[in-house]
Amino acid sequence: MLLSLGKTVFLLSLLTVGCGLAETICTSRRCLAQMLINKNFSSQPQYENCSQTVYVPYIEYQTLSVDTKNLRLYSLLQAMLVWSDPELSWNTSVYKYNAVVLPVQTVWIPELQVTNGIQTTMTDASRDLLVYSNGTLVHFVNINAEVDCAVNLFNYPFAADECPVAIQTWSYDECGTDLVFGKVWKNDGSHGDWQTTHVSLEKKRDDRHYIMVGLSIKYTGPFITLLLPTILIVLADVVSFALPVGEGERNGFKVTLVLSFTMFLGILNDVLPGDSECSPIIRTHFCVCLVLMVLSMLVSMVLTQVAKDGTIVSRCWPQRAAPKTRREEQDEENQADISVVKLGGSEDSQMLRKVVKFLDAIKAKELESERCKAIANRLDTIFFWFYFILGTVYFCAMTYVMVRYECKIDHFDFWN
């Protein structure tokens, strides 16, 4: 009985020692990973100088969208991070592997931030990262950033500008992390009405790095929806001068154009870009076009009155009869005497004279009407050429300003 008990104890001891040896001599890649996980180093590697250098070999930049109403730039950055942690190295004579995969949450990961970003979110591109035998770690991250960028919209819809996307990590009083960048390139540079023309990695100081993003608007869509309708409406207003000046068709047509243009501006209120340091000049363009059309409408109404009565103020103030001269008074007396004398004539002669007098009055009225119309037509021709020349000069000047003029904006005021 005692002998059997001794054998049992001996066998259990051998089993325990064997299991311990089995655990000790486990040198598989998974055992290596578990050994590193058990270290549980979740804090930043720290040395005597209290700083950690993080290398960023490349950044792949992509513009997601540009909010011209609120002046926001939405970007996606995909970056590769490389840093060293000697505590996570191992002896390759024991573990004969040069690299091993570890879960991201088991080690410390540097965090990248966008300095001028209103909202920045950094996510892991994978749940795992790569650790080399010398303690070097390689990881890939995605950064979604909403950047506050006062895009220069003065030349809209021919706008083009550059926006900085400043990248930094936490550091204070010689502690934290330092970034060393490699190269940057753009991916899929066209989204919506805006396209990314170029990206470059620059810096203002050793600790102030940024990606300069070149943006330009694809002007075909805004030109068709914004500028072309205004040009056509103003052109229709110019052509309306071909309608008779004394008729009501021209005034009705011009009123319709003004109301249509006003409704057009109301519809496009949500489409027009927001205000920035350089407010879009297209707003001024719309205002000037509306003023020109209203001026043309008012002048057409005034000329209609001139063509009808020969004066502008006849309907506002009654005209007083001009004082008669002495010669006119004598002529009236003579005509009265003649009419008295001729009362004794035949009835046919009296009727004939009344008809002649009536016809003379109609003829005089027609002559007066033709004279008023001639004055109105002359003034209408003068105003037409004035309106045509002024409109042509304005559109040429506005096109030049939209395309060539440059408005300067300080995009680095967030560092000031």
Q: Helix coverage percent of residues?
A: 40-55%
Enter the CATH topology name of the largest domain. Acetylcholine Binding Protein, Chain: A
Quickly name the level 1 CATH class of the largest domain.
Answer: Mainly Beta
Report the total helices: 7
Number of strands: 13
- How many separate structural domains? 2
Unreliably modeled segments:
17-23, 315-319, 336-344
Q: Based on the structure, what is the oligomeric state of the protein chains?
A: single chain
Shape: rod-shaped
Query: Biggest sheet: strands, sense, closure?
Result: 8 strands, mixed
Strand content: 25-35%
Mean pLDDT: 82
Any idea what the radius of gyration is? 44 Å
Distance between the termini: 90 Å
| CATH architecture term of the largest domain | Distorted Sandwich
Structure description:
This protein is an alpha+beta fold and 416 residues long. The chain has two domains: 185 residues, Distorted Sandwich (Acetylcholine Binding Protein, Chain: A), CATH 2.70.170; 111 residues. Helices cover 43% and strands 26% of the residues. The protein is built from seven helices and 13 strands. The longest helix is centred in the last third of the chain and has 58 residues.
Key features?
416 residues; alpha+beta; Acetylcholine Binding Protein, Chain: A; 2 domains; eight-stranded mixed β-sheet; five-stranded antiparallel β-sheet; 7 helices; 13 strands; transmembrane signaling receptor activity; extracellular ligand-gated monoatomic ion channel activity; signal; Neuro_actylchol_rec; Neuro-gated_channel_TM_sf
How would you briefly describe this protein structure?
This protein is an alpha+beta fold and 416 residues long. The protein is 43% helix and 26% strand. The chain has helices at residues 2-24, 29-39, 220-239, 248-267, 281-309, 326-341, 347-404, and strands at residues 51-67, 72-84, 99-103, 113-114, 117-124, 128-132, 136-148, 160-168, 171-172, 175-186, 190-191, 194-205, 208-217.
